[in-house]
């Protein structure tokens, strides 16, 4: 079947250099890998959401800027995944792609599906070409989970380390503590439990830990998780669900293997210091990041530019399609030992000619911030640049004080004192209001540099080399984009951006 990528942008906020399905809904990135030089990005996908199956969509690329959409790759087709082929990961071994995912099964009857009525089956399907998948195998059932687990166990992350394969699973206990389970296998088919983890304090750090990843940078391991159910704070955990990481001393496997009781234990192993948790993103729309190593050895992250369960908070008003993914981001450690995210170098190749900043292109002089703690903004003395196609890449270096950066009259990034505030000033926020970044969470204690990628209806801010990001959707009424800044800096550069090459798929 031929599938044409619909890129009509009229009233629909189509993107130039982010992935978007022709129709339907996407969420968590899954199965990220590179095999024989080709990158593969899978994601949760419902082609006719919400009235269709829940499975994996599939993109491939030779270079991270030329993309082919292959439609649905993994979908419910048997008893073990009849209610959804949910999130998971992929490994490349023996010339094949091994994709692990959670098969969701819901029993009929009067169930809450949190503590009764739901079954999680960890499934495996393999592909020799990355396109055609063979037999589905159930490699782990919920009967093998400890008794303290609720019905929420999911998101297998599989990797090789030492002399074995390991599988991390996100979990929720019966008394609503977020946790992880760890399993071991010699062949990737038969698994046995080897450990668990939860917060060391004995208090719940959220009720569910989703989307686990183990990431090694400069010889140190970091445990990435998405804790659900952490109460919002004025300057932390501002979204309904959040994403971040724990720095680990030693290895995750060694730490979690300290669980002496395993499946017979009364509770998970309390070995994670929740006070060490570092949030990855302080924007409105970021969740479920997944990390993989490409064939060049780069640790690459892709996140969902969206959040689950946001319907009562704000809107995504696109029509036949919903949600997108971040640009691929390369991970590194800075001198302070913090994980930094930065657009892969391939994204720089989309830059057009440089656009000069000047006073004549700045937007307005003053205005009102409707949702900010500050009543007015003043853009006297601002410099700016105009981008007719609604896309740009901006770099501000050597920032030395307070100021603001504005996109049209719609979105303001304000640096004032010890706070950075991202605020919508118009309906372009679709009910998004304000997010706050306290500068004391930065290792430098202040904002020194800023990079901004703007793509029609997606904005990605990278602060201080990507030590913190702020990711958000926005829905301006015009493709004409004006960027204005009063941030004092030693250098300001901007480029209009080109587009991904979106190819059709037979």
Features:
mainly beta, 506 residues, globular, 2% helix, 6-stranded antiparallel beta sheet, 2 domains, single chain, Tachylectin-2, Chain A, Jelly Rolls
Could you walk me through the main structural features you see in this protein, from its secondary elements to its overall organization?
This protein has 506 residues and is mainly β. The protein has two domains: 24-345, Tachylectin-2, Chain A (5 Propeller), CATH 2.115.10; 347-503, Jelly Rolls (Sandwich), CATH 2.60.120.560. It is built from two helices and 38 strands. The strands form eight sheets. Strands 20-1-2-3-4-38 form a six-stranded mixed sheet, with no helix packed on it. Strands 24-37-28-33-34-35 form a six-stranded antiparallel sheet, with no helix packed on it. The protein starts with 23 loop residues before the first strand and ends with a strand.
Which range does the strand content fall in? over 45%
Overall helicity = under 10%
Instruction: Please identify which CATH superfamily of the largest domain we are dealing with.
Output: Glycosyl hydrolase domain, family 43
Q: Structural class of the secondary structure composition?
A: mainly beta
Largest sheet, strands/sense/barrel: 6 strands, mixed
| CATH architecture type of the largest domain | 5 Propeller
Low-confidence stretches: 1-7, 370-374
Task: Write down the oligomeric state.
Answer: single chain
The outline comes out as globular
CATH topology of the largest domain: Tachylectin-2, Chain A
Strand order of the largest sheet: 20-1-2-3-4-38
Total count of helical runs of at least 4 residues: 2
Q: From the alpha carbons, calculate the radius of gyration and give it in angstroms.
A: 22 Å
CATH class of the largest domain, please? Mainly Beta
Question: What distance lies between the first and last C-alpha atoms, to the nearest angstrom?
Answer: 5 Å
The domain count comes to 2
